[in-house]
Amino acid sequence: MGRRPVPEETKQTLLDHFWKIYCEKPIEKITVREITDAAGFNRGTFYVYFTDVYNALQAIEDSILPGEEQFEEMIKDHHKGLDRHQSLEEFMDFYEQHGEKLQVLLGPNGDPTFVSRIKERVRRLLIPHSSELHKLNEKDRMKFEYMVEAEISSRLGIFTLWFSRGKDLPLEDLHQLVYDMEQKGSHQVGQEMLHRNDFR
Amino acid sequence: MGRRPVPEETKQTLLDHFWKIYCEKPIEKITVREITDAAGFNRGTFYVYFTDVYNALQAIEDSILPGEEQFEEMIKDHHKGLDRHQSLEEFMDFYEQHGEKLQVLLGPNGDPTFVSRIKERVRRLLIPHSSELHKLNEKDRMKFEYMVEAEISSRLGIFTLWFSRGKDLPLEDLHQLVYDMEQKGSHQVGQEMLHRNDFR
DNA sequence: CTTTATCCAACAACGTGTTGTATACTGGTT
DNA sequence: AACCAGTATACAACACGTTGTTGGATAAAG
Question: Is residue B2 situated within a structural domain?
């Protein structure tokens, strides 16, 4: 009885249980035995699919991180057509799609490596698009990179907080806020907010 | 021969060598023996001062993270007097002071816990200051928190990148860039940059 | 000569990654 | 149908290293 185990299923089962555990405790305290016990496999089986607990985490991260192609597609519009609205839209779609995982990976027990990889990839794909098109000088090219960094950091930070707070704000509002901040600057947005409240 | 060991010195020596190792490899691969061997102490001595490798890291983090009082002082001006220039100045002083450490702690092999602690603390101290003063409504109060999050994330991201690139830009330029972005929004700043380059 | 800080040795407990053998199911061949 | 090769996992045992702890020795300071 019990049908033949399928490798892909086994691997996925292991990942699923690993993830469940990872959500509740830092990775350095997770043992292989803990995972395989939960998943109902022999400890040795884990090593068939992963070299390491950290390797398992990487497998999950890889499944989230969009492939180069998909990423490129997603980013093409960003600074080219200057349609920032759509750029933000796509970013949020991405975040919505993998929200639960991203929340953990970017949270207190998350993986800094993953954050770096995301940023690195965005930079790699974003920079050539505009800097080549507009022939920025050296200094401005650097500044541009820092602006990209700021934007990613800011977006990731905001959405992570938003998720960790159980989406306490309608998506539209958050969208608008981020959009406004990128358009007008946080200072300006803050000022308007205060004035709006003064007049009520 | 050899003068009497002083506890504080020993502790610091251990921390120093731990840090040197931590800069070069992820913490999960650092053993107690590795640290004590490098520092020239017995392995047991480590456990006199720390419970754990992670505990040692925490000790370093605590020495960096400003105390509540100092932090409060540093932040008081931020959204109160609305003197953003000075606020940014203070932030950068803090970053300059602990630059090498922050670069590692916020980098790929860094500690997500530490990032959370910083953000949490800034939020805790920043929110009451303005939201009480200006009686924001519930929704705006939340938005305000997200704006704070965005600003911290953005600043930390930028400065970490800046450090990891060996400060490839004069501090003044970076300062100006961040200031501009917070005032006018990254989009606006980017636009101006492009136009400036068109006319040359 | 007492206190203090470190050394040293040894300990059990546990996690790691690996290996060899056994079992059981699958799909394809005859 | 019967058989066989391939595959996925089980199981057990291994050597090895790390952990955190302990009790006693050593050496310097006051």
Answer: no
Nearest Cα to Cα of residue B153 among B125, B113, B119, B121: B119
Digits of tens for pLDDT over chain B (200 positions)?
455 566 678 899 999 999 999 999 999 999 999 999 999 999 999 999 999 999 999 999 999 987 777 767 766 655 554 566 777 888 888 888 899 999 999 999 999 999 999 999 888 877 776 656 667 788 998 999 999 999 999 999 999 999 999 999 999 999 999 999 999 999 899 888 888 776 65
Q: Domain of A47: which CATH number?
A: 1.10.10.60
Do A140 and A172 share a domain, yes or no?
Answer: yes
What's the pLDDT tens digit per position in A81-92? 456 677 778 888
Q: Would you call A176 an interface residue with chain B, using a CB distance cutoff of 8 Å?
A: no
Q: Which nucleotide is nearest to B33 (CA to C1')?
A: D18
* Residues A99, A164 within the same domain: yes
pLDDT at B77: 57
Read off the pLDDT of residues B28-41 as tens digits, 9 standing for 90 and up.
999 999 999 999 99
Angle formed by the axes of helices B112-134 and B138-164, nearest 10°: 140
Q: How confident is the model over A15-28, as a mean pLDDT?
A: 95
| A157 Ramachandran zone, left/alpha/beta (phi>0; psi -120 to 50) | alpha
**Is any Cβ of chain B less than 8 angstroms from the Cβ of A196?**
yes
State whether A77 and A110 are in the same domain: yes
CB contact A23 to B (< 8 Å): no
How far is residue A64's CA from residue A94's CA, in Å, rounded to a whole number?
Answer: 9
A19 in the same domain as A59? yes
Shortest Cα distance, chain A CAs vs residue B11, angstroms:
24
Considering only CA atoms, name the residue closest to the C1' of nucleotide D30.
B4
Chain B within 8 Å of A195 (Cβ-Cβ)?
no
Same domain? B52 vs B135:
no
A150 and A85 fall within a common domain: yes
User: Please, which residues 111-170 of chain A have a Cβ atom closer than 8 Å to chain B?
Assistant: 111-113, 115-116, 119, 134-137, 139-140, 142-147, 149-158, 161-162, 168-169
The Cα B108–Cα B112 span in angstroms is 10
